[in-house]
Amino acid sequence: MSNRPEIVDSGLLYGNKYPADWAIHAYYSRIVEIRPGELLCVYRRAQALYGDDGRTWVLRSTDGGKTWQDEGCLWDGKQDAMPYSYSATHLTRTSTGEVLVMGHRFTRPTPDTPMYDAESGAHLPTETVLFRSNDDGHTWLPPEIVHEPDPHYLLYDSITELDNGRYFVTSDWDRLPNDTDHV
Fold first, then answer.
1. pTM, whole model, 2 decimals?
2. Does 81 have pLDDT greater than 60?
3. Domains plus CATH for the chain?
């Protein structure tokens, strides 16, 4: 007997119905099981990989993943104090049933501001944000800012709930603008 995973089915989660009219890219998808047969998916949708219009979108399947219903944008950003693009969505369902989405939002002062500086490789200012849902992902609370212990840390994965109820998140070392101490 093998412990190798077996692919039993495959399919498309999201497809741009009008590719000749709009450039829409969908990526960074994550799926959790809400209950047997019901799956929740979040993913980033934008005009380009680093597009300033990046938002987190929600899909739901009630037939075990055979079909998916688009439930819209998780957070449209209209209540944000400044323009952000959202990226790197990570989805977790806790032991209490709370659904968490962690990601990053980048300050986008103008649509033509590139995400990364061509010379240094540093990206625009970013904040790690956490969204919470207490109703299986049907509605979401406003984003909470997650404060990293060091500005070089970039929280970069799904949340793992530990036995004591605390959360564990892996991170990566990130280059900041005008950062000459680290390469």
1. 0.86
2. yes
3. 25-173 (2.120.10.10)
